[in-house]
């Protein structure tokens, strides 16, 4: 059974930075993709970024390009999301998810999810 744990969320001001971590256990397959999604109150869960192993390919939503960076440490089974220049619109619960295979941006394409970490950006 694959288990994901997110950490690193918090309350910050606009313009600040945060780094989220997503650590997996029980995942034995490759290739794999880890996706970050976020969900604001009353809204759908939106794609943020993905990291695929072993190609180490990354993809970003247009709304975060140039501000967020996703990276992975396969030895630690951890994927990071470095978030810079945070804005109030970035507020939400951030979830990581993983799938066997390559890039995908729809939540339904992922079978394993973490519990989420709250990110709140004040103006």
What features would you highlight for this structure?
123 residues, mainly beta, 7-stranded mixed sheet, 4-stranded antiparallel sheet, globular
Structure description:
This protein has strands at residues 3-7, 10-13, 18-25, 32-39, 45-53, 57-60, 68-73, 78-83, 92-100, 112-113, 117-122. The radius of gyration is 13 Å and the shape is globular. The strands form two sheets. Strands 2, 4, 5, 6, 9, 10 and 11 form a seven-stranded mixed β-sheet that branches. The chain has a four-stranded antiparallel β-sheet with strand order 1-3-8-7, with no helix packed on it. It contains no helices and eleven strands. The chain starts with a strand and ends with a strand. The protein has 123 residues and is mainly β. The relative contact order is 0.32. A hairpin with a 5-residue loop joins strand 4 (32-39) and strand 5.
H/E element order: EEEEEEEEEEE
* Overall mean pLDDT: 96
Structural class: mainly beta
Q: Radius of gyration over alpha carbons?
A: 13 Å
How many helices? Answer: 0
* Major beta-sheet overview: 7 strands, mixed
Number of strands: 11
Q: Which segments are poorly predicted (pLDDT under 50) over 5 or more consecutive residues?
A: none
In which range does the helix fraction lie?
Answer: under 10%
Shape: globular
Report the end-to-end length measured between terminal Cα atoms: 40 Å
Residue fraction in strands: over 45%
Summarize the structure.
This protein is mainly beta and 123 residues long. It has no helices and 11 strands.
């Amino acid at each position: 059974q694959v288990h994901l744990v997110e950490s690193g969320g918090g309350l910050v001001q606009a313009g600040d930075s945060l780094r989220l971590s997503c650590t997996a256990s029980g995942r034995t397959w490759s290739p794999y993709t880890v996706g970050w999604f976020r969900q604001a109150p009353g809204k759908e869960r939106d794609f943020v970024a993905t990291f695929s192993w072993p190609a180490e390919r990354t993809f970003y939503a247009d709304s975060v390009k140039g501000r967020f960076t996703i990276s992975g440490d396969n030895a630690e089974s951890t994927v990071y999301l470095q978030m810079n220049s945070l804005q109030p619109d970035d507020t939400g619960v951030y979830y990581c998810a993983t799938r066997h295979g390559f890039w995908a941006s729809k939540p339904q394409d992922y079978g394993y999810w973490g519990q989420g970490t709250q990110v709140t950006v004040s103006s």
